[in-house]
User: Which sequence fits this backbone?
């Protein structure tokens, strides 16, 4: 498919000749073999879906629109992903499925589609979606956290947290503080972290 071929359908659409636009675009996407230009190909799929979505030159049909939108969405067209998410959220043309709506809204939002971000926020505000669980890992265990993510064992978000800063006005308990290393740690706490109150105990208490 060439840009000029796509443009023929677009020109017809701009002129209000929706039937010709549909014929041109369908002829292009139905050509045998792999598309020469993936960006134009998915834009054409989306354009056909929008004709059915809006009922331009054809009877409005969300079910058929969803078929074309899904083809475009699955090859990363953000507008189609947003539209398909909307159809799933409303149960129009497809069975209502908020998780599928969420998936397609998130795909579009990651590409910067502001409508998808808005639609996703509305689902959370309406309470039909629960926020994803968050697993927290101390930043000092970052390597372990990344290995955990690499094994695809997590659900939701993995967040690295910074250790809590010591409160100079608080009291720090150092077990094993009566030994040589304990003494060095105590000195470090006082000189570097300005801790004013220390309790040093042996490991046996």
Assistant:
């Amino acid at each position: 498919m060439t840009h000029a071929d796509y443009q023929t359908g677009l020109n017809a659409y701009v002129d209000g000749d929706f039937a010709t636009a549909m014929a041109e675009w369908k002829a292009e996407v139905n050509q045998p073999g792999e598309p020469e230009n993936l960006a134009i190909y998915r834009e054409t799929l989306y354009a056909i879906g929008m004709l059915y979505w809006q009922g331009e030159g054809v009877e409005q049909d969300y079910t058929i629109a969803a078929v074309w939108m899904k083809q475009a969405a699955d090859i990363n067209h953000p507008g189609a992903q947003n539209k398909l998410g909307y159809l799933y959220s409303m149960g129009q043309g497809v069975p209502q499925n908020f998780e599928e709506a969420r998936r397609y809204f998130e795909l579009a939002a990651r590409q910067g589609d502001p409508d998808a971000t808005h639609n996703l926020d509305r689902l959370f505000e309406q309470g039909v979606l629960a926020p994803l669980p968050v697993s927290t890992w101390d930043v000092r265990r970052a390597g372990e956290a990344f290995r955990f993510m690499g094994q695809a064992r997590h659900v939701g978000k993995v967040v690295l947290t910074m250790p809590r800063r010591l409160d100079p006005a608080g009291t720090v308990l150092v077990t094993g503080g009566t030994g040589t290393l304990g003494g060095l740690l105590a000195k470090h706490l006082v000189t570097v972290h300005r801790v004013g109150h220390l309790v040093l105990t042996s490991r046996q208490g």
